[in-house]
């Protein structure tokens, strides 16, 4: 398993009683530690209007982190293209690449105020799932519907604040094509006018597509011969259809001659199972805040989480995420990650960990890296 790289996905979480300033400093520290532990990549997610998440601009945070690290790859997981242009995206990453060449991953997602991509008419996965398990035992829960979030006034406000009045998002596939053309330096408008992004043109960035289903993101990544990251930690029910749809659509490119997939997992590791479960106690309450559309709350202490009065409807709301979080000792979590890798055929695994105490979060990544390197 040491041949399967581990990477980090960081939301820059704010713990209860803490501040965005401390969260940012903690994330830069964690990136430095992850580099020392041997993680292959460190990605920053993009989220907006969340009281408990400070990662609003991946490009800004990774630029700061690039100056504090030296070898680990850094990137976005992912830039939300629904409220951005191809040019602004290429120019931002071109600026960072100009000072830190060859270290950047440009992860691109369809979201622009929507909580996740729509599954559309993606074909179901061919891997059999019986009683919620793949043949090797990986948990695949029932699909969660995001309809409640799409109708949320807060989500509508987020979209309005992120976009210029009257603006319409460009077709995702076309936007990806424009980004790739600007990076290559061969962009032409429909009437033949050239455009050159300086800096940006010729930047040594790896382009990734992130997706939660077998819909447009997986199709665009496959047809373009690009790297694809599937979100088990966000949408565990659709990870198999996402990876299978990507591979089915894959066409070799100048970048890749065969599919390349990273799969994410939510993880908390401690010296023993009981300690890990205690440190992960706040996760369910945190997920609940996201899925009720109030926005991610500052990550609670175990005591705060245990004091919350849970209704059956709330437990059902977060069940798929809680039961697919990998929590335990280094050996037990590594076993579950091996299971995830085997079921999805992942070439890499992307680990996201949130705990109330920063030291516990760092320790989780350290213990996992040590265990993984022994396999």
UniProtKB/TrEMBL annotation:
Transmembrane segments: none annotated. Residues 108-137 are annotated as: Disordered. GO terms for cellular component: cytosol. Residues 8-344 form the Luciferase-like domain. GO terms for molecular function: monooxygenase activity; oxidoreductase activity, acting on paired donors, with incorporation or reduction of molecular oxygen. Keywords: Monooxygenase, Oxidoreductase. InterPro entries: Bact_Lucif_Oxidored, CmoO-like, Luciferase-like_dom, Luciferase-like_sf. The keyword Oxidoreductase applies. The keyword Transcription does not apply. NCBIfam families: oxido_grp_1. To bacterial alkanal monooxygenase alpha and beta chains. This is Putative luciferase-like monooxygenase.
